[in-house]
Amino acid sequence: MVSLFTRCIAEFVGTFVLVLGGCGSAVFAAAFPNAKINELGIGFLGVALAFGLTLLTMAYAIAHISGCHINPAVSFGLWAGKRFPASELLPYIIAQILGAIVAAGLVYLIATGKPGFILSGSNPLATNGYGVHSPGGYSLIACFITEVVLTFIFLIVILGATDGRAPKGFAPIAIGMALTLVNLIGIPITNTSVNPARSTGPALFAGVEMFRQVWMFWVAPILGAILAGIFYSSILRESGAPVVGEAEPEFSRPGVREGDYSRR
């Protein structure tokens, strides 16, 4: 069995790469060379794909080590779905937050290397927000509902793709594409979080005003994830069929973790 410390290191690395890849693409490439002359910029679609592809690749890279949660909401959702022990929630979440903070700090450091760089706009450093900090000017209620629903959908895909009855080996693809989808929906509304660590890291460097809104990007995604975990484990599971996280002979093999995407 892989030690908890090693798994937390993997979660740190995975979250670091997710935030660097997703938020970094938003900061450096979304509107390159600038918002008015966007000849080479990747736009919303590019940023959504950056988040999805980063998760897909990291799932193949570290899922066999830690399960590749790299998101506190995912950890809570897997716990609610009876696939992850409560005793490991806090270590995982701490590792995820630290990975996000280090990645956001690196994005900020690189961004300041460009002459004239300032933290400006409604979502500086790819932060998430509501009200005046919603890219499309959506209200707190609208943003809250969006984050709950999108996280619910995201977790349903994770829980379904990693179910013992699902086709094996394809979970990272489905999960990565699901993150792309929710980003395509949510970027204009909240700049898409569905991940409290992803929201916390950039907000720490973007200023007090942005950090004051982070609470919503903890409460809504975790609520959506827990609802998905309860819904899937109680409604969508087939009676008598094995579901990942229950006592299956496969789990006795060294290095295999509950919720691992790599073994599907």
Structural topology:
Layout: H1 4-28, H2 43-66, H3 72-80, H4 89-111, H5 140-161, H6 171-190, H7 196-206, H8 208-211, H9 216-236
Helix pairs in contact: 1-2, 1-4, 1-7, 2-6, 3-4, 3-5, 3-9, 4-7, 5-6, 5-9, 7-9
Please tell me what the overall shape is: globular
What number of domains? 1
Main beta-sheet strand count, sense and barrel state:
none
DSSP strand count: 0
Q: Supply the CATH class.
A: Mainly Alpha
- Judged by helices, strands and strand pairing, the structural class is mainly alpha
Mean pLDDT: 90
CATH topology: Glycerol uptake facilitator protein
Per DSSP, the total helix count is 9
Helix content: 55-70%
Regions with little confidence, pLDDT below 50 for 5+ residues: 244-259
CATH architecture label? Up-down Bundle
| CATH superfamily membership | Glycerol uptake facilitator protein
As a whole number of angstroms, the C-alpha radius of gyration is 18 Å
Structure description:
There is one protein chain. The protein has 264 residues and is an all-alpha fold. It has a single domain, classed as Glycerol uptake facilitator protein (Up-down Bundle). It contains 9 helices and no strands. Helix 1 packs antiparallel against helix 2 and helix 3 packs across helix 5. The protein is globular and about 55 Å long. The two termini are 18 Å apart. The relative contact order is 0.19.
